[in-house]
Design goal:
Helix content: 55-70%
Radius of gyration: 39 Å
Structural class: alpha+beta
Strand content: 5-15%
Oligomer: single chain
Strand order of the largest sheet: 4-3-2-1-5
Largest sheet: 5 strands, antiparallel
Shape: elongated
Distance between the termini: 136 Å
Order of helices and strands: HHHHHHHHEEEEHEEHEEEHHH
């Protein structure tokens, strides 16, 4: 039938077959592109639903599937030179492997993407893991394809084995930091915006957790870069967890002889004044409280005013404003803040033992 049609058109049968195959392939690409756009439209329309996952899974398949169908029809319907038949057969094999590997890869990527959307803090984990999934499935497809084409991979495996050892040794620190970064992003002992202090003394707000290091912005507005492998090993104090609110302590000393109850009342009134003045960062609930701690000092009675602040960065401002109001309240109440004093008692024999210096004294 093809030969009769070629004769009727006065075209060489082989040339006619090549033209027909090219037309089929072009039609497959055009139709596949149109179907891809339709599926992509429904993917965007049905966001955050199972429909989005369904259409996202199939939106990339129309073009390879239609090209596969066009190649199969071409080999079945049109007489082609042996070379082109061999190329067509290998192309069908390659596309079949591509489609078979595509499904598990796409399902994994869609799962990771949805996981990252539900947990915004883990999006930085989902991105590198998605890249690794793409690379692994691509390598799997290439290996399967080469094996089916009869290409021996023994030499390749040997080269990759030796090369991977050399690369692992050369990139030991980099890989250690990378996997430590993944651990930090998954377990989330720190998050961007948290104020943390390391056991080595560095402290600051977490700016970002990258693939190699974590950046901290210190209260002096400097940037400290901590390798992820180091951060995963040290003891971390996170002042933003389990919640940003924390306790701020204001130690206050009064002179001996002051009534402790009166001093506590003055401190609570100063804290109430601060709440009425709406000091930035000071919380009214839980209510401020005073404790007679640490207690008896060398030259004073030592109290501690305990208040709650909104977050770590607010405690400096809150403590400063509270000290001003406490001083104002103490002046009004006549409560003295003592200077350090020391009483020295001399025995009666001491001046005689000092000799002339004692007589002058």
């Amino acid at each position: 039938m093809v030969e009769d049609l070629a004769k009727a058109l006065a075209i060489n049968p082989t040339t006619f077959s090549m033209i027909a195959v090219a037309a089929l392939l072009i039609a497959a690409v055009v139709v596949g592109f149109i179907v891809n756009r339709i599926l992509h439209h429904w993917t965007n329309t049905l966001q955050n639903s199972w429909g989005e996952l369904f259409f996202a899974l199939f939106e990339s398949l129309p073009i390879p599937l239609l090209i596969l169908a066009a190649l199969y029809l071409s080999l079945y319907m049109f007489p082609l030179p042996r070379l082109y038949e061999r190329i067509g057969t290998k192309s069908i094999l390659a596309l079949t492997i591509l489609v078979l590997v595509y499904f598990p890869a796409k399902v994994s990527i869609l799962f990771l993407r949805r996981f990252g959307q539900k947990n915004p803090g883990l999006q930085q984990v989902a991105q590198p893991v998605t890249f690794l999934v793409r690379v692994l499935f691509a390598l799997l497809a290439v290996i399967i394809l080469l094996e089916n084409l009869g290409i021996s991979l023994t030499a390749v495996w040997t080269t990759l084995g030796v090369g991977s050892v050399a690369v692992a040794l050369a990139l030991q620190d980099t890989l250690s930091n990378f996997f430590a970064g993944l651990y930090i992003l998954v377990s989330r002992p720190v998050r961007p915006g948290d104020f943390i202090r390391l056991d080595s003394g560095q402290e600051g707000f977490v700016v970002s957790v990258g693939g190699r290091a974590t950046s901290l912005r210190t209260p002096q507005n400097n940037l400290v870069i901590v390798p992820n492998s180091t951060l995963a090993k040290v003891v971390i104090t996170n002042f933003s967890l389990p919640e940003p609110r924390l306790v701020a302590l204001v130690p206050v000393s009064v002179a001996y002889g002051t009534d402790p109850t009166r001093a506590e009342k003055a401190l609570l009134e100063a804290a109430s004044d601060a709440i009425r003045h709406r000091v930035e960062g000071l919380l009214a609930d839980p209510a401020p409280m005073v404790r007679f701690t640490p207690g008896f000092g060398e030259s004073s009675l030592d109290f501690t005013l305990i208040v709650h602040v909104r977050q770590f960065a607010d405690q400096i401002t809150v403590q400063s404003e509270l000290r001003k109001l406490i001083l104002e309240r103490f002046v009004k109440e006549g409560i003295q803040i003592p200077f350090p004093t020391r009483t020295i008692q001399l025995e009666r024999a001491a001046p005689a033992s000092l000799g002339g210096a004692g007589e002058k004294a």
